[in-house]
Amino acid sequence: MKKLIYVITLLFILINYATAIPNDNVIKTFNGEEFHLTGDYYHPNITDVNQKMTPVIPFEGLSTHGGQQIVDGYKQAFKHDVMGDFINLQLSLVKKQISSNDQHTIIQNLAVIRKQFPELINFWQGLAAATHHTLEEIYLVAWSEEGLFANEIQKDTNNSLEKMAEITKKGSACTSIGWSNGILGQTQDMNVAYSGWGAIWQSPTLIVHAPTPFFTSIVMGKKLATTTNIIEGLRQGSGKNGVPISAVIMAIAAKIDNVYKVPALFAALKTNGAYSPSFVDLKNQIITIEITNKGNKVIDGTKKGYVVHTNHPIGEEKRLVKKYAQGNRQLFDNLSANTLWRLATAKLRAIYSPTKSVDALKNLFSVKPILMQGYKGNAFITTNAIIHDLKAGCTYGTTWSPNLQDFTKVCFVN
């Protein structure tokens, strides 16, 4: 058993600024509200709502003016400078956790973005102008959204079993599921401390679900929709040598019309984190790509008509359980925030649901084990949920637990 202490990998870890669970089980969220953990797994608290509404922020898209509109939109929706506060917070963390030399390495990858996604440069320049920062500072923040997260996981892969079990309760996970008919959705599971600033951005060609101001990788374009799941820990991204995956996926959704064009883009890129985004297009094509620093794996769901993914490399379950938990499947699953249980549940729904629809996913996202709720000693919950209906041109999102908040419907205006 002692050998096991050093081998199970940290799939889900809350980076330093997220509030840990104090003895009184009270969590403070991004917007300063308190969440009180009560009950147990099957009888969790269902009364605290940290964000009662989902603001929809209009912007023109990935342009300089679009960036400025996003900053102003947050101010109007939340009555204070959310974007500015978040940027200052992230920059302080970067300064504490990333050396000057490594910051320089990170910023060098702006050249990659300029070449392949110049629209992101324009957008970030708008954010910079509206918040009185430099482009380089904005890029560091964009990188830090996943980069700091991955950095913490990689530093802590040798923690004790007991420590990892506690960290799992404070981390981040997701369940994604979609069909080739254009319906694609995901729950976002993370520490309740991350909640409180969620919004949906709406432009004529791009709709972005942003649970935090720089986590922008769950998006719908006019011809392509995407969700993004994490596999960091069991796999690794390229850290300081990689570009921010959230921003890149947002840009891809804005301009790509075919899921089979996406793998080549990532084959030519290093990303700061190991993630598994899923993509669906209007041609009834759907794929998931597991993106790592050792190469990428494409999981093609077009022929079977669906994809599902949680937080481990698909198809390697037996090997992972043997390697990380000496064959104890339940132990591996529990320490990995029920990744196997959620995958099996989502797969059954993907295959057997009588309708492959928005309502089918709304129902799935409201029940355990897909729905994670807070309870005493556990602040690891489903903080929000997203469902795209690409063919209808509408997407649905919550900025709080989907069993406590109605989905907000946002559509492209023809």
What attributes does this structure have?
Penicillin V Acylase, Chain A, 14 helices, single chain, six-stranded antiparallel β-sheet, disordered N terminus, alpha+beta, eight-stranded mixed β-sheet, 414 residues
What structural class should be given to the helix and strand makeup?
Answer: alpha+beta
Discrete helix count: 14
Strands of the biggest beta sheet: in what spatial order? 5-8-9-10-11-12-13-14
Q: How would you characterize the largest beta sheet?
A: 8 strands, mixed
CATH architecture: 4-Layer Sandwich
- From the N-terminal CA to the C-terminal CA, the straight-line distance is 60 Å
Helical fraction: 25-40%
Number of domains: 1
CATH class: Alpha Beta
Layout of helices and strands, plus pairs?
Layout: H1 2-5, E1 26-28, E2 34-36, E3 39-40, E4 43-44, E5 56-58, H2 64-78, H3 82-97, H4 100-108, H5 110-116, H6 118-131, H7 135-155, H8 161-168, E6 172-179, E7 183-191, E8 199-202, E9 206-210, E10 218-221, E11 224-227, H9 245-255, H10 262-267, E12 278-281, E13 286-290, E14 297-300, E15 306-309, H11 317-325, H12 329-335, H13 339-352, H14 358-364, E16 380-389, E17 394-397, E18 408-411
Parallel strand pairs: 5-8
Antiparallel strand pairs: 1-2, 3-4, 6-7, 6-15, 7-16, 8-9, 9-10, 10-11, 11-12, 12-13, 13-14, 16-17, 17-18
